[in-house]
Amino acid sequence: MLLSATAGVLLALTGCSAAADKPSGVATTGSEAAPVEAEIVVPEAKEIFPKTSAAIEKATSATVVGDLTNGSEKGNFELSGTVDGTNSLMKMSQDDASVELLTVNKVSYMKPNKAFLTQTAGAEAAKMLDTVAANKWISTKKADQFGDFTVGSFLASMDTDELGAKEAAKITKKSLDDLNGTKAFKYTGDEVTFWIAAEGEPLLLKLEGTGSASDGTGTMTFSEWNAVKPHEAPAKSDVVSVPGL
User: Fold this and answer.
1) Which of 42, 99, 156, 192 is deepest in the core (most CB within 10 A)?
2) pTM for this entry
């Protein structure tokens, strides 16, 4: 994203050095220096964080994958879809309990396992629901009873507008990193490490909590910014209706 102005100078110096080593009158054809890749300069956090916040603010879709620990509780999730929540898929699990929440064309579906139903509805209700809806999607008019699981609400909960105002001041180290083949600016703070795309829009690629387990630790990766493919509704044969849901 930010290319060093010295790249052109390096190219010029390389060319001059090659010519200076040649006796007068000797042709240089075939001995031209190889191009030098432009250096990427890592900007200060206070410069890039507000741009990242603005890029997130105008995003239309994204995929977020998290592996988190809060005290003795451990869980993971994958949230993918539009920011406005009109097309969204959430998969989350904690210990043995897991559930998928899907929204397509203003219709919501859920696919919980028996352990999740036991935790949320009780053992007796879980047994009944598991009998009629095992491995099926349950259509529901109350998808928000389990929480507001949309990309938009998730990003809002992160207070990304605080990146420049608060988080930038906590950065103690910066570097250029290779994040699974993608060039990224890495910023290390006292409790959180950030990876931001070094090429193209400065979008957030990864967060890693490094504080105490009691305060919440883990990683979250971000991908498919503005490019999530729409999720499809399940086949009618895979959907059941349950009174009260």
Assistant:
1) 99
2) 0.79
